[in-house]
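Consider the tokenized backbone below.
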């Protein structure tokens, strides 16, 4: 089963938006299911009958950058501690 998929990302490393399909093993998708590429079936010399049906469901994945206030405060405190350590090293070196 092929499910239409939209992936959006706010991260610089990822493309802003990608459209494609997610493949599910079997005739229906199970919520939260996953499988490895090794588990997908493959065989040679087969006749394939493809049937297209348009459904109303799609998979939408959005990756957001979240900065919490605690993360911001801790990074500022870490920067101050690092600057004080550098200043302390310089004072020991000068004395």
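A designed sequence for it:
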């Amino acid at each position: 089963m092929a499910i239409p998929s939209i992936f959006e990302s706010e991260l610089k490393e990822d493309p802003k938006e990608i459209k494609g399909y997610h493949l599910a093993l079997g005739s229906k998708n199970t919520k939260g299911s996953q499988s490895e590429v090794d588990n997908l079936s493959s065989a040679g010399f087969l006749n394939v009958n493809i049937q297209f049906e348009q459904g109303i469901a799609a998979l939408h994945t959005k990756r957001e950058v979240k900065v919490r206030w605690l993360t911001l405060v801790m990074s500022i405190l870490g920067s101050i501690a690092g600057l004080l350590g550098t200043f302390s090293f310089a004072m020991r070196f000068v004395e």
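Helices lie at 69-94.
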